[in-house]
Amino acid sequence: MSVSIPSSPHRPPVMADVARLAGVSLGTVSNVVNTPDRVRPATRLKVESAIASLGFVPNTSARTLAAGRGTLVGFVAVDLGNSYFLDIARGVEREADLAQQSVLLGNSDVDLDKQTGYLNLFEQAQAAGIVLAPFDGPMDEARRLRRRGLRVVYVNWPGDADESCGVVVDEELGGRLAAEHLLEQGRRELVFVGGPLDLTAVRHRFEGASAAARDAGVPLRLMTTSALTVRAGLTVGSELLALAAADRPDGIVAASDALASGIVQSLLLGGVDIPRDLSITGYDDNHFAQGTTLPLTTVGQPGVDMGGQAMRLLRDELDHPSTHRHETVVLPPRLIVRGSTLRAD
């Protein structure tokens, strides 16, 4: 004899409906939903059949409250228009998959208010924790979340000493690698292009390039920009074309691939031979850096590894709250040589 559960137009089916239809306890239904391996196959089949028949959808929020933490992890990226942050997202997701957790993605689009909104949204969604690639500005909201008990791990920012974890790239080393490469090509009139310098990563890249030039006894000029975009690079290129050829640099360290791309476009249109007359390096190894007419020599950041490291730190803090020790993981960048640089004869 089959048992029918009348459907109510006022509410969706709940776990108790599944238990009645399957003829089992609520605890058994909960085990099938959360830990199916603990249930005998025949019983699990009855419960799964009841779930399918009723169209029951487990309440993720309730499961979160019962378990003390959920299966969802939030990832907030500062700019998904930059493929570097897409690589970080892939690393976060890959590591989360190993723990059978799902990743909710938010793009703050270089907007502090949007970043705050996503952080609050993920808290309301009962996320187990958050990986944050932050806007270069105040971390007040993320710190407030941590004080309220929500775990937040930073990527592309070092975190607060003894209070939170972070994963970063050695930006000074990246700037040094770019400048040293140009110096090895025989370039001696170097310019660093980037800004604003109150952006931590840009400042550190400039400091690394400056150290390399200083060690070689070569001056390094600075051209600051208001952004790291193609448009800003086009403006820089126009300014360089306005100079007499003898006054132009023969080597440019650009603080981003987008910036370098704009400079290259402008100079090529103005008749400058790159890389014979001038060599240029970018930074980030954005996906378009190798797909343009003149592929960019660039400093690549290990985005996938960074995302994976951040997620592992978050999992460790969630799984071992009493023994977890906060740390900042620093990963090395690497120089990727392409057609925009040339060894001078």
What does this structure look like?
With 345 residues, the protein is an alpha/beta fold. It has three domains: 15-58, 434 Repressor (Amino-terminal Domain) (Orthogonal Bundle), CATH 1.10.260; 71-169 and 303-332, Response regulator (Rossmann fold, 3-Layer(aba) Sandwich); 171-301, 3-Layer(aba) Sandwich (Rossmann fold), CATH 3.40.50. It has helices at 15-22, 26-34, 41-54, 60-67, 83-98, 112-124, 140-147, 171-184, 200-216, 230-241, 257-269, 303-319; strands spanning 72-77, 102-107, 129-132, 151-155, 166-169, 190-194, 220-224, 251-254, 279-281, 298-300, 328-331, 334-336. A six-stranded parallel β-sheet has the order 2-1-3-4-5-11, with helices on both faces. Helix 9 (200-216) links the parallel strand 6 (190-194) and strand 7. The N and C termini lie far apart (91 Å).
- The multimeric state of the shown protein is single chain
Rounded to the nearest angstrom, the radius of gyration is 26 Å
Report the major sheet: 6 strands, parallel
Task: State mean pLDDT (0 to 100 scale).
Answer: 89
- SS element count, helices: 12
CATH architectural designation of the largest domain: 3-Layer(aba) Sandwich
Task: Give short descriptive properties of this protein.
345 residues; 3 domains; disordered N terminus; 6-stranded parallel β-sheet; 4-stranded parallel β-sheet; alpha/beta; Rossmann fold
